[in-house]
Design a protein that fits this description.
Elements (H helix, E strand, L loop, with lengths): L1 H29 L9 H5 L1 E3 L4 E2 L8 H26 L2 H4 L1 H13 L7 E4 L2 E4 L2 E4 L3 E8 L17 E7 L9 E3 L2 H13 L3 E2 L1
Length: 199
């Protein structure tokens, strides 16, 4: 019974990896039509949570894209090896928690660092394209003292947390940080023009 459960979880993991790669590929192809960001100044004003790095252009030639692209194949090979070892031996019963740990490490190892683009007919957020019809609204929060993100990075302090509510999604996509008022004004203007309202 445990073998069947692990096999189902394994197949779902392979689906997740392939779906993520497909979404990233589509995002890289459509980001060339972005209305925002375009200039170096616009890219540098968007910070990605976690590592607090400036956003970079998303192309198929970029290093982060190639890491995900080749990492997908490496992850699938490692998952197949893990599955074969676990099913061919009796380790699954005794080492289930360690096996599950390795499984989730492999799945999370190929994540792209994140991005945000406004397109003529939608947005790209964290390597996934959302058409206008799926974006319910956006929300901005000023990062000042007592905000959950205040103090995590100097550039994020007094900036703005920009998040989106996507229709019919239980797990909402992550957010980005907009560093200053000028860039936030440009983003709001473009979003409002497309019919995406602020909460």
């Amino acid at each position: 019974m445990l073998d069947v459960f692990f096999l189902v979880v394994f197949l779902l993991g392979i689906y997740f990896i392939l779906r993520y790669r497909f979404n990233l590929k589509k995002a890289a192809e459509t980001s060339t039509d972005a209305l925002y960001p375009k200039s170096k100044e616009e890219f540098s004003s968007i910070l990605l949570p976690g590592e607090w790095l400036e956003m970079e252009p998303l192309t198929k030639e970029s290093k982060s894209y190639r890491v995900v692209n080749w990492g997908t194949y490496a992850s699938i090979i490692l998952l197949v090896i893990l599955l074969v070892v676990l099913l061919a031996t009796d380790w699954l019963d005794s080492l289930f928690s360690i096996s599950a740990y390795f499984f989730f490490i492999i799945l999370s190892a190929i994540r792209h660092r994140g991005n945000f683009f406004i397109l003529p007919k939608g947005i790209i957020l964290n390597s996934r394209y959302y058409p206008l019809s799926e974006v319910k609204h956006y929300k901005t929060e000023k990062i000042i003292r007592w905000h959950e993100l205040y103090g995590l990075d100097e550039r994020a302090d007094n900036g703005y947390k920009l998040s989106f509510k996507i229709r019919n999604k239980v797990i909402q996509p992550s957010y980005v940080i907009v560093e200053n008022d000028e860039q936030l004004g440009r983003i709001r203007g473009l979003l409002d023009k497309q019919g995406i309202t602020g909460a």
